[in-house]
Q: What sequence folds into this?
């Protein structure tokens, strides 16, 4: 009976963003109620979901690479880190490279694709990306080993595709690359979403945030640090444009507007080394959420992904 009741509550929360209800709550008793509901909801959902694992090998302009695995299948999202370092990190974390069966690519900037051709060639792994991104990879001089034609897999925004154990839905993300997509990934009853290198948050992107239980979202920069920093004006304008990168504030506002009670974990990704700090990103997002009665650590967990070293692994249920 308890599980049936929680199921109805979770169904309701799927459609109603948490911020719309949290505004009417006050701290104290309401905060305790939020924590209790979160605990019960997590218990009930864990009865049905299989476990996935998530691991970040690096997140930032120096290189991006993320791992998502079920008990039987593993994929990478972007391979913008050095292959030698990736091999070492996999050994350190008990990941067998031969168990990685798929690669998803968001876009064709070097910090996301530097080693994708070499990895695909060495381990005969297919690479999924939009046609424009594949064309951009072929043009990119940083990718010295190109992806073999028989390992090229093309995806389209809004069209779901089964990739091993995973149901993968790409969606468009505005950025100044040949093309760029986020990925909404479902497996074992778990809904995972990644959004990186995003100039703005579109209505389409908002829909996927609302469906996510686990969310990786960009918090690239602090606007004031960009504006007062040493970058030339053309680069500042690029970063702050609608095809640039998502600021800490815009990341927080996207969560406030679109998160639901089913959201369990948020990772802030792709932080700028020059225009951001991990604690600044965290405090900015947490402060915005708190203004709407949403408490990181109670309503969901919040973590900042490290730029050049691994973060995780995390169990997703």
A:
């Amino acid at each position: 009976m308890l599980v049936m009741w929680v199921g109805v509550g979770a169904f309701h929360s799927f459609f109603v963003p948490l911020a719309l209800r949290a505004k009417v709550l006050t701290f104290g008793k309401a905060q305790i109620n939020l924590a209790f509901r979160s605990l019960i909801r997590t218990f009930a959902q864990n009865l049905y979901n299989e476990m996935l694992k998530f691991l970040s090998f690096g997140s930032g302009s120096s290189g991006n690479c993320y791992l998502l695995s079920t008990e039987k299948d593993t994929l990478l999202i972007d391979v913008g880190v050095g292959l030698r370092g990736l091999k070492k990190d996999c050994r350190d974390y008990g990941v067998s490279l031969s168990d990685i069966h798929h690669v998803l690519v968001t876009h064709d900037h070097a910090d996301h694709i530097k080693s994708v051709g070499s990895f695909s060639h060495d381990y005969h792994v297919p690479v999924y990306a939009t046609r424009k991104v594949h064309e951009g990879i072929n043009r990119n001089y940083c990718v010295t080993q190109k992806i073999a034609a028989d390992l090229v897999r093309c995806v389209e925004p809004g069209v779901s595709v089964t990739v091993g154990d995973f149901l993968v839905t790409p969606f468009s993300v505005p950025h100044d690359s040949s093309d760029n997509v986020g990925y909404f990934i479902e497996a074992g009853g778990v809904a995972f979403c990644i959004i990186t290198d995003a100039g703005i948050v579109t209505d389409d992107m908002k829909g996927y945030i609302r469906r996510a239980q686990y969310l990786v979202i960009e918090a690239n920069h602090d606007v004031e640090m960009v504006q007062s920093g040493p970058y030339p004006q053309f680069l500042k304008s690029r970063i702050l444009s609608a095809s640039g990168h998502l600021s800490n504030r815009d990341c927080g506002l996207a969560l406030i507007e679109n998160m639901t009670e089913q959201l369990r974990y948020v990772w802030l990704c792709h932080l700028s080394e020059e225009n951001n700090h991990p604690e600044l990103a965290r405090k900015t997002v947490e402060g915005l959420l708190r203004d709407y009665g949403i408490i990181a650590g109670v309503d969901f967990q919040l973590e900042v992904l490290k730029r050049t070293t691994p973060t995780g692994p995390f169990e997703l249920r």
Summary: The radius of gyration is 19 Å. DSSP finds twelve helices and 14 strands in the chain. The chain has one domain: 49-308.
